Amino acid sequence: MITSKNWVKHVSFAILAVVIISVHAVPSSAQHPQPIPDFTRGGKTDGSHDWTLGATGARGWIYAWKHTADARQILITNVARNSPADGILERGDVILGVEGEPFDDDARIQFARALTRAERDESDGILKLVRWRNGQTENVEIQVPVMGTYSNTAPYDCDKSARILKQGCEVIAQNGLRGVSISNNINALVLLATENPKYRPMLADYARKVSRYYADSFATWYYGYSIMFLAEYALATGDESVMPGLKRLALEAAHGQSKVGSWGHRFALPDGRVGGYGCMNSPGIPLTISMVLAREAGVDHPDLDLAITRSARFLRWYVDKGAIPYGDHAPWPGHEDNGKCSMVAVLFDLLGDAEAASFFSKMATAAYDERERGHTGNFFNILWAIPGVSRCGPRAVNSYWREQSWYYDLARGWDGYYRYQGSPVGEEEHGKYADFDSTGAYLLAYALPLKSLYITGKKPSSVRPLTKPEVDEVIAAGRGFFETKKKDRFRYHLRSDSDLLSGLSSWSPPVRKRSALELGKRNGNFQPAILKLLASDDRYSQYGAAEALGQLGRRGDVAASVSALTDALEARDPCLRILAGEALASLGKPARPAVPKMLERLANTDPENDPRGMEQRFLCFSLFNRRGGLIGESIDGVDRELLLRAVRVGLQNEDGRARGSVGSVYDHLTYDEIKPILPAIHQATVEPAPSGIMFANGIRLSGIALLAKHRIREGMPLCIQIMEIEKWGKKKRIAECLNTLETYGAAAKPVLPELRQLEKDLLAHGESRMLSPIIQQVRDLIRDIESSTGTVKLRSIAETQAG
Question: What's the pLDDT score for residue 801?
Fold first, then answer.
């Protein structure tokens, strides 16, 4: 059993909003595409993971770079004893083709589809392979179990799907449900879904374990799936004995929520903020689903209701804007980010929010080519795929299944067990799920037709099932995801100008964004057509047009673009206003006439309709970012009164990164100009933002630097206060605070007692070795302050306000 400690204790944060992939996510030898090896000529692998080769019992290495479309060989890396491939394949063999023909496209997919065909009744389980061994090529056959044919409505009304589910459940039961874990919770959910009485004793015993479960380290990850199983179990069986445990777990989760409606690796700190890396939606969404199910099962408490409401509000903001991202960030630019759109499709359907559920279910359905990636791996992307897609109805599920069934057949081992497959090289894969039992994660798709669990559709859906034309439109939105698939005729750079202009009006945010990006690369007079879209009544067309004008930049009539985008700042739709602001920032200096209107929008909040100040957040970026913000480098000609009103609001935004961007203004204001907002600056330095903790240091460090620059007395104790030596990012933060404190010279003598205590605290710190350069810096600073002479005249914030 994998535990919390050996699963996530080394998980590292690797993204900022739309920053796509960390270079640490792939082997060092594969941070860029490697030459494709020819194993018949002595080629070697790059050391990345191999793949389950379905029911053969073999595993093989396949060349990959974000996908396997360029692979034409499969190197056999292992053959299970007594499996169908035993005696026919051996380690070092190379599969060159199937059914007598060499691979002429993606070797992995062609192998998988041949395996699917071999499992049909009419094929008698005969899988025909072209095998190379020791310089000799020959055709060989492997006898795999006959599973039947997927029906035209699979996984609904499908005998093969039913057989796979039955086989997999026997594997789960045989392996047992020992300790409480994410995998076992999911495996237990699958057994529960079958409603088979022979699994009832095992499930009852496991439910008792879960009802007594407690976790401290990374509790958010474990509580979500534990509560989810326990609630589904209680709803399915009526077993009242688990209700006290269910209530305890659900309320611990609710009380562990941050003040903005999110969770992190752990429950929130006493001040209502999430520590560590900040908000993480991958555990937060399952927690919310589980609390909804707990409420359905009979847990009645206002704290539970409040937590659900906060989380739903937090997540619903992304409707029509893009995929749910890692944390409290900008929308992810694809259709899916490790299953989170699929998760919220289930969540909003359970809440009866048809609009949100429909949007995210469509995103999940269009994400068939995006399932193999995810921060640290793709486990949750596979787990939630089909439950999320199902909210769009059976036609959507069936169309999605036609795109992805090969992947499920390839992942199913010869014994019915599903190992974690991993992501292709080039995608983010940290190996954190390598030991996960993924059986339940795959089988949940096959349990969908039973509709015996709330997460698989027991409760009638709030979403109208999509018609065939609507499904076709959603599937089409997922085409062309990989620009490097040479045989994909749907790639964006191959699309016509008219297709790209049509793409600007798509329901899909990724299609709009990618169409706009491609238009921005082309020569052509697209501006008149785009301006017409912006002036239309269709909101999707308006969104796409705003993005496209930003991508066109200064081509065409820039004044016309600026005028149209400035008018869009007055639109009733906040999403359009945000996109218009971002586009204006992309236009740069010619768009500066729009700055007053943007500052007005920033200064005028709307707590009722935008309680989290999301419009203000993005306006902060568009205006104040040092790189790309319209006034991030210069505030020349900007009305100071309006500017200071906007700065006050920006400094109160919930997001740490938004506040940090406002700090660029500090460099450009004189002391007299900044005096009126010194209290706001001081407050933003004292109190960190409630969200965006990864970026909360920026404005606080800028604040103490500003206070030191103008010799404000209150800055000295703040230098000590905001060091926060137990929190993430401490080393750099402490060093900068010490550097700032040093500028006070002899005036810093009053804080010498705090510095001496700091030295003691750092010496006793659990990471004292890592902090040894900082400890020496503290000692040097103490010595310098002690020996400093002279008088430094200090100001006080209170005095400046009184004067």
Answer: 67
